Amino acid sequence: MSQLSKKIFMNLWFIQIFHQKSVRVLLISMEQKPGWSYKFISSLNMHIAINDTTGVMYTEDKIKYSQEEQLMLKSIDYQIPLSVHLIKKVFDGTIISVK
To answer: Is 23 part of any domain?
Structure first.
């Protein structure tokens, strides 16, 4: 098994264990700053921050979502499935569609 395959396997294993045990991550509330809009996302159990000028969006765990991703997520009221968010976080991925 290649190093990349081992890394992918270990990351997928971690996500599976994380999900199975319903581990709740203790989150620190985002410090609210002027020029940003904040919204609590129940599916992630965390807040998001959207810059009012640039449109940049971050989650509490510092994951950045592009404007293209935000347009898709807005159509589902930003209710991102936790599994999708974790995969994006682990693999630095991009959401390409919402169905």
So the answer is: no
